[in-house]
Amino acid sequence: MKTPASSIVFKVTRREPELIAPSKPTPHEFKPLSDIDDQEGLRFHIPVIQIYRHDSSMQGKDPVKVIREAIGKALVFYYPFAGRLREGPYRKLTVECTGEGVLFIEADADFDFEHSGNVLQPPFHFLDEFLFDVPGSNGVINCPLLLIQVTRLKCGGFVFALRLNHTMADGAGTVQFMTTIAELARGEQSPRILPVWERQVLSARNPPTTTCIHREYDDFTTPIPFPLDDLVHQAFFFGPNEIATLRSYAPPHLRQCTNMEILTACLWKCRTTALQPNPMLEIRMIVLNNARKKFNPELIPKGYYGNGFVLSTAVSTAGELIKNSIGYALELLRKTKAVMTREYVQSTADTLVIKGRALFPVEGTYIISDVRSSGFRDVDFGWGKAIYGGPAKAIPILASFFVAFENQKGENGILVPLCLPSQVMERFVKELQIMLQGANSNDGKLAIKSSL
Hints:
The chain is an alpha+beta fold. Helices cover 23% and strands 23% of the residues. It is globular.
């Protein structure tokens, strides 16, 4: 039986943060971000966490030393990460490739997997211990673009945690960089996939022209309608049984929908009900559409590590979403995914420039990012694949991730972290339990609960 995470007491000892620069000289130059990269909604840092078990074949090797050295080598290829962002006219972001380096922290924790409870799975209790927020490091402009902490566990495993300035890369780009570190850590001389900058492929035309509808960038701003001092992080596992139950709510003509579509539709409906909004409030489900390998010929070249996605939006009044069946939400989601064309991608970049790198409305907005196929768990520094790999938690109020996860029963499924006010979260859990009545997985325990 696992110990509840809330009752675990442990100590993490950290050394002073250091800067790791590229191990060889790199060019000093200025590289503009794309007009997808530097939109307002990506101007923040996002945490990623990778968990690794002890591997007897690596006895005597120190993951901190191995990874630290590999980072320096990787930055020779990914030298923009060692630079700093500068903001120019019209809020345009450019990387000055200074070679200053990325922040790195060496740490040790005095506990092991056997007694770790659910500390080492979302919503990651004690995340701050495994990814220390170095004072003054979390700004978007003129700050380190990456912070990495490697924490040894007394059982011989370790935690690799990374905080990334999201304007620089998306999930796929982050995995590409981590994979390069891993390849070099395992003794390779160069990455299997060489990085490509080419940010101009997702930049606006001259002059920019909006040719498609982009409801995610509607011209209004709204305040967050509740206080931010009562937020709760929880994570929910959806295995084969839960997905099958949710799929049974789809109307016959939509029964072949994807797991992503049915799960998104159900979460959107439950979350909206739990928020108890004004029935006339216009609400949005924003979906991230990956533009990699999407078109023929390809729009985004192999090795591109910038943000390679655009947003599309399903819109409804809250009242209509709540009173209608799951089929209503599914239809809206399928329609919004169908807008993804080359012209839509170009129109998105143009619109962001025209609207001054706009931010989506906050009230009534929910964002889903499916990172299951990004390859986080496959990153192998020499100790094998990660037992967990991916985003560390939900983005408060706004966004959830779909993360590939194996539960204690050995079932592969989807782990979804959420962050909502405590009373809203209680109502959300009840709504989801009602929807999942009859599901047998997780021994009837739907939620992995925690407050961060």
